């Protein structure tokens, strides 16, 4: 994991339980005798997330509606730390750490995890877009009851699912960074098959439940879309072109190695001036972030000088 990620070590369950006592009901010994939880239990996963967000990010009230995505916090944090390094490269190695940085989270979800981490660790402002009205209402409610998020997170409904930026990014509005965790699967059936594979890996496939248990949850818009991850990225790249002067860096998480090859092809058809791949490793899992910009090095440095306060924050 990224060296700034506070979740790189084993979870400190005594501290987490102290921060969020409800977690105690789910703490069990793992095969080596260490404290853990049953990661096949959605309630346990939600309780762990709630404790992590409270202990590390000061969010006292966090929840997601039943069946909605409850993402693993360490991986979400990793994405933002690597993205911070991306911005620092255009800022003399200094990470900009205040509200002068504005980030667009495409598909913020009911969990609102990226804005929570980004606002609390780096002081950034966030706009979160969402096509699911239920998820958006849940995220808005959660932001409203947590004072640490007040005035830092603006949540917007995307009423046209085929659009990624149109209807969300306002005329002349600027974003220093776009982040995205795109739907991974190509169909509901593909998503269900993936859940069954995860179930076998976690060791709970013997439950004989008629539907696969999603320990991290997820609605259709969170798990799959036409064309899957590759199709979504293709649309995202094409729709990023008109915003070449309004966004410094676009980025998206990529789960499949094959999608990375496609990403380079899609971006090769545009006027992108630089494409970077940020490798992230969490245990045995390897994922990547592809980032691209339409501005050259001099333009990016001028952007940083114009928008970000000089001398704020620290380097690596």
TrEMBL record:
UniProt entry tagged with the keyword Methyltransferase: yes
Molecular function via GO: 23S rRNA (adenine(1618)-N(6))-methyltransferase activity; nucleic acid binding
Catalytic class of the enzyme: transferase
GO biological process: rRNA base methylation
Top-rank lineage group of the source organism: Bacteria
Any single Gene Ontology cellular-component annotation: cytoplasm
UniProt similarity note: Belongs to the methyltransferase superfamily. METTL16/RlmF family.
Annotated PROSITE patterns: N6_MTASE
Residues spanning the membrane: none
Role summary: Specifically methylates the adenine in position 1618 of 23S rRNA.
Keywords carried by this UniProt record: Cytoplasm, Methyltransferase, rRNA processing, S-adenosyl-L-methionine, Transferase
Main subcellular location: cytoplasm
Protein name per Swiss-Prot or TrEMBL: Ribosomal RNA large subunit methyltransferase F
InterPro entries: DNA_methylase_N6_adenine_CS (IPR002052), METTL16/RlmF (IPR010286), rRNA_lsu_MeTfrase_F (IPR016909), SAM-dependent_MTases_sf (IPR029063)
Subcellular location: Cytoplasm
EC number assigned by the record: 2.1.1.181
Catalytic reaction list: adenosine(1618) in 23S rRNA + S-adenosyl-L-methionine = N(6)-methyladenosine(1618) in 23S rRNA + S-adenosyl-L-homocysteine + H(+)
Pfam family, one: Methyltransf_10
């Amino acid at each position: 994991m990224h060296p700034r990620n506070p979740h790189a070590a084993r979870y400190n369950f005594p501290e987490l339980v102290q921060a969020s006592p409800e977690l105690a009901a789910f703490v069990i010994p793992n095969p080596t005798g260490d404290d853990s939880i049953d990661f096949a239990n959605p309630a346990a996963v939600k309780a762990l997330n709630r404790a992590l967000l409270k202990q590390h990010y000061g969010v006292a009230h966090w929840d997601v509606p039943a069946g909605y995505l409850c993402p693993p916090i360490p991986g979400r944090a990793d994405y933002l730390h690597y993205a911070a390094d991306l911005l620092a490269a255009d800022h003399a190695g200094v990470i900009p750490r205040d509200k002068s940085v504005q980030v667009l989270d495409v598909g913020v979800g009911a969990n609102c995890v990226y804005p929570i981490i980004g606002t609390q660790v780096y002081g950034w402002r966030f706009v979160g877009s969402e096509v699911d009205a239920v998820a958006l209402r849940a995220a808005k409610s959660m932001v409203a009851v947590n004072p640490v998020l007040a005035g830092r997170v603006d949540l917007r409904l995307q009423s046209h699912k085929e659009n990624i930026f149109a209807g969300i990014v306002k005329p002349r509005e600027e974003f220093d960074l776009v982040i995205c965790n795109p739907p991974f699967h190509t169909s509901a059936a593909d998503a269900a098959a993936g859940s069954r594979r995860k179930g076998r890996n976690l060791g709970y496939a013997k439950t004989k439940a008629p539907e696969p248990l999603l320990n991290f949850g997820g609605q259709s818009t969170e798990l799959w879309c036409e064309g899957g991850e590759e199709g979504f990225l293709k649309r995202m790249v094409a729709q990023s072109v008109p915003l070449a002067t309004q966004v410094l860096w676009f980025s998206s998480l990529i789960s499949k190695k094959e999608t990375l090859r496609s990403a380079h092809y899609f971006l090769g058809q545009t006027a992108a001036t630089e494409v970077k791949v940020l490798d992230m490793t969490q245990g045995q899992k390897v994922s990547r972030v592809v980032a691209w910009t339409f501005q050259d090095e001099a333009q990016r440095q001028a952007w940083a000088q114009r928008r970000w306060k000089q001398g704020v924050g620290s380097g690596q």
